[in-house]
Amino acid sequence: MVSQLYYILIALLPFCLGTVIRRWDSPIVKLPYATYQGYHNESSGLDIYLGVRYGASTEGQNRWKEAQPPLDQTNQGILNATVFPKQCPQGTAGGIITAAQYDPLQSVDSEDCLFVNVYAPPNADNLPVLVWIHGGGWDHNSAREFDPTPMINFSNNSFIGVIIQYRLAAFGFLQSPSMAKDHGLNAGITDARASLRWVQQYIEKFGGDKDKVTIWGQSAGGGTILHLLAAQSEPQRKNEKLWKNVIMSSPYLTPMGKCDSTSWQTQFNNFSSAANCSGDNALECLRNTSTDTLKTLSHQFDSKLLAEHPSAYEPCIEGEGGYLIGNTAERLKNGQIPNSYMIGGSNFNDGSGFVPTSLTPPSNLTNISAEADSRLSNYLTTDFPLTEGSEQVQRVLDLYPLKDFVDNHARGAEIYQDVIFACPVDWTLDTNQNSWRYLYAVKDAVHARDNAYEFPYFYNTLSPNSPTLYSSYIGSIVSLITTSSPNNLRDVQPENDPSWPLYVTKGEYKVLNVTIANISDSYISQGAQQIGTKERCDFWAETRITGNW
């Protein structure tokens, strides 16, 4: 009883003495067009601003136009930045919404969605900045699934995190040459550029250093980075410095093709007709169509795959006067990209979830090999711009013989993995002198499993918990963000963790894996087919460049 009373008195002592327990003031940032009040998270020690506008609403006449500057809201007093902003309209379920919950008219979606979330240490001064570009197939996800607090805290609060949103599905990637005059093609990609320009203009207000920006994207976010690399390499943009460091995780480089190709035009015409818009004024009609109608159509067309493309909504080649002037695959392969300090990687089984199980023939057939080749050939000419019976298709069958795989599905998955994820990483790093590669091989290592370590608040169930692997992987990421090398912060990485070799020297890369006891077992390797062999990647580079996709 005495000891219990003692602790009660000790607890009450500050109040008896009139001492006030410190409370943090809500942080306020004043921008030229608006003043925002965020909140201080006492658990993480970070000032957080949710829903800071970097662009005007994209509805109505701003649809399929390049992101417009934020409207002046200085006469509205201090704006609340303590709740997540509405997310861009989703083309399908994903992220915070399950398939059972998904409704294309859900209230959490809005065309007024060009916002960033900022996570900053209090009194930050010229800190490095991470800008995260989320994945989700360019048709789903938002900023709220990606909280960078764990990695900022792991870095001893030594950088600022900026999480962006950009237009998705039909709102961001419905393509028609009629949009060109408003620079509205590839709107989701140019939104990302607009957010990076916002960082250059305003991150100093949050304590960030615009000259120490790292951009990081996974899947479609990584694909967005590949397109940004290509676009910013054009002569007229080479003096615009939007980043210093680059991280790309399983970047999604789908077939492009010209924006005026038959595939894109057919999709636009069918979409417009479904909205009761057609003819020369179809685009203007769509801009005057209700948001709910477009949300519904965006979802319906999400399942209608584009001819010779593996998905419905993807970037295209605009040509002169546009942002994505040329073929991104060609720019990457030929080294026509801005010099950056880069980490790039892919997952051991990145392609397995993207190809149909019907590729594998029934086991009771008399000639399984011939049927497997036939099914694979049909897949290649349906989902990719390859011609039936062509030498290219035969070359694919020869490069990926059925005998090398457990079944035809695994064969197709390896092809998809090379074309879309692994080879684009290799092309990008091959021509960059300051580049490092990894292969994520934890557990089943299917696409996006690495999110478990990048953003554990939301994705922690995707992979086994391993603090030492977190140190090996995220410790290296933090090192790149803060020092432009994954090897400089050795004190935050596990003892005996191998240093990252430069990829351009010998094609060596770091394999991220764990033991049975979930202890980091990262090691250096070279030449595994899971990262795309040189022969296969050279073939796909030539095929994509000659076919302009």
UniProtKB/TrEMBL annotation:
Keyword Hydrolase in record: yes
Any Pfam family the entry gives: COesterase
Organism: Kwoniella shivajii
PANTHER family, alphabetized: CARBOXYLESTERASE
UniProt KW Coiled coil keyword: no
Catalytic activity, EC: 3.1.1.-
Signal peptide range in chain numbering: 1-18
Domain of life: Eukaryota
Similarity-based family: Belongs to the type-B carboxylesterase/lipase family.
UniProt KW keywords: Hydrolase, Signal
Name recorded for this polypeptide: Carboxylic ester hydrolase
The Carboxylesterase type B domain, residue ranges: 26-540
InterPro entries reported in the protein's UniProt record: AB_hydrolase_fold (IPR029058), CarbesteraseB (IPR002018), Carboxylesterase_B_AS (IPR019826), Carboxylesterase_B_CS (IPR019819), Type-B_Carboxylest/Lipase (IPR050309)
Major enzyme class: hydrolase
